[in-house]
Amino acid sequence: MSVEIEKNLKLSVAPEMPAHLETSTLEGRNKILGLWFFLGAEVVMFACMFGVYLALRNSTAGGPTTQDLYEIPLVAIMTTILLVSSLTSVLGIHEMRKGNFRGVQLWFGVTVLLGAAFLSLEIYEFFHYVDMGHTFTSSAFGTAFYTLVGTHGAHVLFGVLWISGLLYNTRKEGLTDFTAPKFYVASLYWHFIDVVWVFIFTVVYLMGMVG
Amino acid sequence: MAQVQTNPSTSTEKKSKGASKYLISFAIMLTLTAISFIAVGTGAMPVGVLIPVLLSLAMIQVLMQLFNFMHLSDKGSGFPILFIFTGLFAGILAVIAMLYLL
User: How far apart are CA A85 and CA A80, in angstroms?
Assistant: First the structure.
Protein backbone atom coordinates (compact mmCIF):
# COMPACT_ATOMS: atom_id res chain seq x y z
CA MET A 1 0.00 0.00 0.00
CA SER A 2 1.42 3.35 -1.02
CA VAL A 3 2.12 5.98 1.62
CA GLU A 4 -0.51 8.29 0.12
CA ILE A 5 -3.27 5.68 0.30
CA GLU A 6 -2.32 4.86 3.86
CA LYS A 7 -2.50 8.56 4.75
CA ASN A 8 -5.92 8.82 3.09
CA LEU A 9 -7.25 5.83 5.00
CA LYS A 10 -6.17 7.43 8.29
CA LEU A 11 -8.39 10.38 7.34
CA SER A 12 -11.38 8.06 6.98
CA VAL A 13 -14.05 8.41 9.65
CA ALA A 14 -14.24 4.61 9.67
CA PRO A 15 -10.58 3.58 9.94
CA GLU A 16 -11.49 0.14 11.28
CA MET A 17 -13.26 -1.01 8.10
CA PRO A 18 -11.78 -4.31 6.87
CA ALA A 19 -9.27 -4.06 4.03
CA HIS A 20 -11.35 -5.31 1.11
CA LEU A 21 -11.04 -3.99 -2.43
CA GLU A 22 -14.13 -1.79 -2.02
CA THR A 23 -12.72 -0.21 1.15
CA SER A 24 -9.15 0.21 -0.15
CA THR A 25 -9.60 3.90 -1.06
CA LEU A 26 -10.93 6.84 0.91
CA GLU A 27 -13.41 7.47 -1.91
CA GLY A 28 -14.69 3.90 -1.67
CA ARG A 29 -15.17 4.14 2.09
CA ASN A 30 -16.98 7.44 1.81
CA LYS A 31 -19.28 6.07 -0.90
CA ILE A 32 -20.26 3.21 1.41
CA LEU A 33 -20.83 5.54 4.38
CA GLY A 34 -22.81 7.88 2.13
CA LEU A 35 -25.06 5.08 0.93
CA TRP A 36 -25.76 3.99 4.50
CA PHE A 37 -26.66 7.58 5.37
CA PHE A 38 -29.06 7.58 2.41
CA LEU A 39 -30.56 4.27 3.56
CA GLY A 40 -31.17 5.73 7.03
CA ALA A 41 -33.22 8.48 5.38
CA GLU A 42 -35.03 5.93 3.19
CA VAL A 43 -36.06 4.02 6.32
CA VAL A 44 -37.81 7.14 7.63
CA MET A 45 -39.55 7.76 4.29
CA PHE A 46 -40.85 4.19 4.03
CA ALA A 47 -41.83 4.17 7.72
CA CYS A 48 -44.02 7.24 7.13
CA MET A 49 -45.71 5.46 4.21
CA PHE A 50 -46.26 2.37 6.38
CA GLY A 51 -47.78 4.61 9.08
CA VAL A 52 -50.17 6.20 6.58
CA TYR A 53 -51.07 2.80 5.12
CA LEU A 54 -51.80 1.29 8.56
CA ALA A 55 -53.93 4.28 9.51
CA LEU A 56 -55.95 4.27 6.27
CA ARG A 57 -56.14 0.58 5.28
CA ASN A 58 -59.75 0.23 6.43
CA SER A 59 -60.93 3.43 4.69
CA THR A 60 -62.06 1.56 1.57
CA ALA A 61 -64.97 3.88 0.62
CA GLY A 62 -67.13 0.85 -0.28
CA GLY A 63 -64.46 -0.60 -2.61
CA PRO A 64 -62.60 -3.92 -2.24
CA THR A 65 -61.01 -4.55 1.17
CA THR A 66 -57.58 -5.99 1.95
CA GLN A 67 -59.19 -9.41 2.40
CA ASP A 68 -60.95 -9.20 -1.00
CA LEU A 69 -57.72 -8.33 -2.81
CA TYR A 70 -54.67 -10.10 -1.42
CA GLU A 71 -53.86 -13.70 -2.33
CA ILE A 72 -51.13 -15.79 -0.73
CA PRO A 73 -49.65 -17.56 -3.81
CA LEU A 74 -48.69 -14.44 -5.80
CA VAL A 75 -47.21 -12.68 -2.76
CA ALA A 76 -45.31 -15.85 -1.80
CA ILE A 77 -43.78 -16.10 -5.29
CA MET A 78 -42.79 -12.41 -5.31
CA THR A 79 -41.29 -12.73 -1.83
CA THR A 80 -39.25 -15.78 -2.83
CA ILE A 81 -37.98 -14.09 -6.00
CA LEU A 82 -36.81 -11.03 -4.07
CA LEU A 83 -35.21 -13.09 -1.29
CA VAL A 84 -33.29 -15.19 -3.84
CA SER A 85 -32.16 -12.00 -5.61
CA SER A 86 -30.83 -10.74 -2.28
CA LEU A 87 -28.79 -13.94 -1.99
CA THR A 88 -27.47 -13.65 -5.55
CA SER A 89 -26.30 -10.07 -4.98
CA VAL A 90 -24.43 -11.07 -1.80
CA LEU A 91 -22.84 -13.93 -3.76
CA GLY A 92 -21.77 -11.30 -6.31
CA ILE A 93 -20.01 -9.38 -3.52
CA HIS A 94 -18.49 -12.65 -2.32
CA GLU A 95 -17.02 -13.23 -5.80
CA MET A 96 -15.85 -9.60 -5.88
CA ARG A 97 -13.88 -10.05 -2.66
CA LYS A 98 -12.22 -13.06 -4.31
CA GLY A 99 -11.36 -10.91 -7.34
CA ASN A 100 -13.47 -13.02 -9.74
CA PHE A 101 -15.08 -10.53 -12.13
CA ARG A 102 -16.88 -13.22 -14.17
CA GLY A 103 -18.59 -14.36 -10.97
CA VAL A 104 -19.59 -10.77 -10.19
CA GLN A 105 -21.09 -10.40 -13.66
CA LEU A 106 -22.92 -13.71 -13.39
CA TRP A 107 -24.50 -13.12 -9.95
CA PHE A 108 -25.37 -9.46 -10.54
CA GLY A 109 -26.83 -10.47 -13.92
CA VAL A 110 -29.04 -13.05 -12.21
CA THR A 111 -30.03 -10.37 -9.66
CA VAL A 112 -31.17 -8.05 -12.47
CA LEU A 113 -33.22 -10.84 -14.10
CA LEU A 114 -34.91 -11.71 -10.78
CA GLY A 115 -35.64 -8.02 -10.20
CA ALA A 116 -37.27 -7.82 -13.64
CA ALA A 117 -39.33 -10.95 -12.89
CA PHE A 118 -40.50 -9.38 -9.62
CA LEU A 119 -41.48 -6.19 -11.45
CA SER A 120 -43.53 -8.06 -14.07
CA LEU A 121 -45.46 -9.87 -11.33
CA GLU A 122 -46.08 -6.57 -9.54
CA ILE A 123 -47.37 -4.95 -12.75
CA TYR A 124 -49.68 -7.95 -13.28
CA GLU A 125 -50.86 -7.62 -9.67
CA PHE A 126 -51.64 -3.90 -10.02
CA PHE A 127 -53.57 -4.46 -13.29
CA HIS A 128 -55.55 -7.22 -11.57
CA TYR A 129 -56.44 -4.90 -8.65
CA VAL A 130 -57.48 -2.08 -11.00
CA ASP A 131 -59.83 -4.53 -12.73
CA MET A 132 -61.34 -5.27 -9.32
CA GLY A 133 -62.04 -1.55 -8.78
CA HIS A 134 -59.05 -0.84 -6.52
CA THR A 135 -57.28 2.18 -8.00
CA PHE A 136 -55.07 5.03 -6.82
CA THR A 137 -58.06 7.36 -6.54
CA SER A 138 -60.82 4.90 -5.55
CA SER A 139 -60.28 5.27 -1.78
CA ALA A 140 -57.86 6.46 0.89
CA PHE A 141 -56.83 2.80 1.22
CA GLY A 142 -56.07 2.71 -2.54
CA THR A 143 -53.91 5.84 -2.37
CA ALA A 144 -51.98 4.61 0.68
CA PHE A 145 -51.52 1.13 -0.85
CA TYR A 146 -50.24 2.26 -4.26
CA THR A 147 -48.02 4.95 -2.71
CA LEU A 148 -46.30 2.45 -0.42
CA VAL A 149 -46.07 -0.60 -2.70
CA GLY A 150 -45.57 1.56 -5.80
CA THR A 151 -42.65 3.44 -4.23
CA HIS A 152 -41.06 0.11 -3.40
CA GLY A 153 -41.66 -1.05 -6.99
CA ALA A 154 -40.03 2.15 -8.26
CA HIS A 155 -37.00 1.32 -6.12
CA VAL A 156 -36.83 -2.13 -7.70
CA LEU A 157 -37.02 -0.57 -11.18
CA PHE A 158 -34.28 1.91 -10.29
CA GLY A 159 -32.13 -0.92 -8.90
CA VAL A 160 -32.57 -2.98 -12.07
CA LEU A 161 -31.52 0.00 -14.23
CA TRP A 162 -28.64 0.88 -11.89
CA ILE A 163 -27.12 -2.60 -11.81
CA SER A 164 -27.66 -3.10 -15.56
CA GLY A 165 -25.86 0.17 -16.25
CA LEU A 166 -23.08 -0.78 -13.86
CA LEU A 167 -22.57 -4.16 -15.56
CA TYR A 168 -22.47 -2.44 -18.95
CA ASN A 169 -20.06 0.30 -17.87
CA THR A 170 -17.60 -2.02 -16.14
CA ARG A 171 -17.59 -4.75 -18.83
CA LYS A 172 -14.12 -3.69 -20.09
CA GLU A 173 -12.56 -2.15 -16.98
CA GLY A 174 -13.24 -5.14 -14.76
CA LEU A 175 -12.68 -5.00 -11.01
CA THR A 176 -10.56 -2.12 -9.76
CA ASP A 177 -10.46 -0.11 -6.56
CA PHE A 178 -12.65 2.35 -8.52
CA THR A 179 -15.36 -0.05 -9.72
CA ALA A 180 -15.51 -2.31 -6.63
CA PRO A 181 -17.18 0.32 -4.36
CA LYS A 182 -19.77 0.88 -7.10
CA PHE A 183 -20.76 -2.79 -7.02
CA TYR A 184 -20.73 -2.80 -3.23
CA VAL A 185 -23.10 0.17 -2.84
CA ALA A 186 -25.40 -1.24 -5.55
CA SER A 187 -25.62 -4.49 -3.59
CA LEU A 188 -26.35 -2.59 -0.34
CA TYR A 189 -29.17 -0.77 -2.12
CA TRP A 190 -30.52 -4.06 -3.46
CA HIS A 191 -30.52 -5.70 -0.01
CA PHE A 192 -32.34 -2.66 1.32
CA ILE A 193 -35.10 -3.23 -1.28
CA ASP A 194 -35.53 -6.72 0.16
CA VAL A 195 -35.54 -5.34 3.73
CA VAL A 196 -38.44 -3.04 2.80
CA TRP A 197 -40.25 -5.92 1.09
CA VAL A 198 -40.00 -8.04 4.26
CA PHE A 199 -42.06 -5.37 6.03
CA ILE A 200 -44.42 -5.00 3.05
CA PHE A 201 -45.27 -8.71 2.84
CA THR A 202 -45.69 -8.85 6.62
CA VAL A 203 -47.53 -5.60 7.35
CA VAL A 204 -49.45 -5.08 4.10
CA TYR A 205 -50.19 -8.56 2.77
CA LEU A 206 -50.10 -11.05 5.67
CA MET A 207 -51.62 -8.69 8.25
CA GLY A 208 -54.13 -7.58 5.60
CA MET A 209 -55.25 -11.16 5.04
CA VAL A 210 -55.98 -11.77 8.73
CA GLY A 211 -57.85 -8.44 8.93
CA MET B 1 -6.06 1.46 -11.31
CA ALA B 2 -4.41 -1.90 -11.14
CA GLN B 3 -6.26 -5.06 -12.06
CA VAL B 4 -6.93 -7.17 -9.00
CA GLN B 5 -4.47 -9.86 -8.07
CA THR B 6 -5.64 -12.62 -5.80
CA ASN B 7 -3.76 -15.33 -4.06
CA PRO B 8 -5.43 -18.55 -5.28
CA SER B 9 -4.67 -20.68 -2.24
CA THR B 10 -6.17 -18.30 0.32
CA SER B 11 -9.10 -17.33 -1.92
CA THR B 12 -10.34 -20.92 -2.33
CA GLU B 13 -10.05 -21.44 1.40
CA LYS B 14 -12.19 -18.42 2.10
CA LYS B 15 -14.61 -19.30 -0.67
CA SER B 16 -16.15 -22.45 0.77
CA LYS B 17 -16.34 -20.99 4.27
CA GLY B 18 -17.77 -17.60 3.27
CA ALA B 19 -20.32 -18.82 0.73
CA SER B 20 -21.79 -21.37 3.13
CA LYS B 21 -22.28 -18.58 5.69
CA TYR B 22 -24.51 -16.77 3.20
CA LEU B 23 -26.34 -19.94 2.19
CA ILE B 24 -27.14 -20.77 5.82
CA SER B 25 -28.45 -17.23 6.41
CA PHE B 26 -30.53 -17.56 3.26
CA ALA B 27 -32.00 -20.90 4.39
CA ILE B 28 -32.94 -19.43 7.78
CA MET B 29 -34.57 -16.38 6.17
CA LEU B 30 -36.50 -18.58 3.75
CA THR B 31 -37.72 -20.69 6.69
CA LEU B 32 -38.81 -17.59 8.64
CA THR B 33 -40.73 -16.40 5.56
CA ALA B 34 -42.35 -19.81 5.12
CA ILE B 35 -43.43 -19.87 8.79
CA SER B 36 -45.10 -16.46 8.35
CA PHE B 37 -47.00 -17.52 5.24
CA ILE B 38 -48.04 -20.89 6.68
CA ALA B 39 -49.20 -19.28 9.94
CA VAL B 40 -51.47 -16.95 7.95
CA GLY B 41 -52.54 -19.58 5.39
CA THR B 42 -53.62 -22.18 7.93
CA GLY B 43 -55.15 -19.69 10.38
CA ALA B 44 -53.85 -21.88 13.20
CA MET B 45 -53.18 -18.95 15.55
CA PRO B 46 -55.62 -16.42 17.00
CA VAL B 47 -55.11 -12.96 15.47
CA GLY B 48 -53.97 -11.46 18.79
CA VAL B 49 -51.01 -13.87 18.86
CA LEU B 50 -50.42 -13.98 15.10
CA ILE B 51 -49.66 -10.27 14.58
CA PRO B 52 -46.84 -10.06 17.17
CA VAL B 53 -45.42 -13.36 15.84
CA LEU B 54 -45.42 -12.05 12.24
CA LEU B 55 -43.76 -8.78 13.29
CA SER B 56 -41.09 -10.61 15.32
CA LEU B 57 -40.30 -12.95 12.42
CA ALA B 58 -39.98 -9.94 10.09
CA MET B 59 -37.70 -8.15 12.56
CA ILE B 60 -35.40 -11.19 12.90
CA GLN B 61 -35.21 -11.53 9.12
CA VAL B 62 -34.40 -7.84 8.66
CA LEU B 63 -31.61 -8.00 11.27
CA MET B 64 -30.18 -11.03 9.43
CA GLN B 65 -30.25 -9.08 6.15
CA LEU B 66 -28.51 -6.11 7.75
CA PHE B 67 -25.83 -7.99 9.65
CA ASN B 68 -25.14 -10.97 7.37
CA PHE B 69 -25.97 -9.81 3.84
CA MET B 70 -25.16 -6.12 4.24
CA HIS B 71 -22.03 -6.92 6.29
CA LEU B 72 -22.89 -4.83 9.36
CA SER B 73 -21.15 -7.53 11.39
CA ASP B 74 -17.84 -6.49 9.76
CA LYS B 75 -15.39 -4.45 11.79
CA GLY B 76 -15.69 -0.68 11.45
CA SER B 77 -19.45 -0.65 10.86
CA GLY B 78 -20.13 1.83 13.68
CA PHE B 79 -21.32 4.67 11.46
CA PRO B 80 -23.53 2.52 9.20
CA ILE B 81 -25.13 0.99 12.32
CA LEU B 82 -25.66 4.48 13.77
CA PHE B 83 -27.24 5.72 10.51
CA ILE B 84 -29.61 2.83 9.93
CA PHE B 85 -30.77 2.45 13.54
CA THR B 86 -31.32 6.20 13.93
CA GLY B 87 -33.52 5.92 10.82
CA LEU B 88 -35.36 2.95 12.32
CA PHE B 89 -35.87 4.80 15.61
CA ALA B 90 -37.34 7.88 13.91
CA GLY B 91 -39.38 5.67 11.58
CA ILE B 92 -40.91 3.54 14.33
CA LEU B 93 -41.80 6.71 16.27
CA ALA B 94 -43.51 8.07 13.15
CA VAL B 95 -45.52 4.86 12.64
CA ILE B 96 -46.67 4.77 16.29
CA ALA B 97 -47.58 8.48 16.18
CA MET B 98 -49.65 8.02 13.01
CA LEU B 99 -51.47 5.01 14.43
CA TYR B 100 -52.54 7.14 17.40
CA LEU B 101 -53.34 10.31 15.47
CA LEU B 102 -55.09 9.12 12.31
Answer: 9
Coil/strand/helix, residue A101: helix
Which of B93, B30, B33 shows the shortest CA–CA distance to A199? Answer: B33
Buried b (16+ CB within 10 A) or exposed e, A73-90: eebbebbbbbbbbbbbbb
Query: Which pTM was predicted?
Result: 0.90
H/E run at residue A17: none
Q: Using only the alpha carbons of chain B, give its radius of gyration.
A: 19
Residues of chain B found within 8 Å of residue A194, distances taken between Cβ atoms = 65
Is residue A180 within 8 Å of residue A21, measured between CB atoms? Answer: yes
Contacting residues of A for B95, CB less than 8 Å apart:
47-48, 50-51, 54
Contact B83 A191 (CB under 8 A): no
Question: What is the tens place of the pLDDT at every residue in A188-199?
Answer: 999 999 999 999
- What is the distance between the alpha carbons of residues A152 and A145, in angstroms, rounded to a whole number? 11
Q: Count the neighbouring beta carbons within 10 Å of the beta carbon of residue B26.
A: 20
Q: B95–A47: do the CB atoms touch at under 8 Å?
A: yes
Quick check: ipTM above 0.90?
no
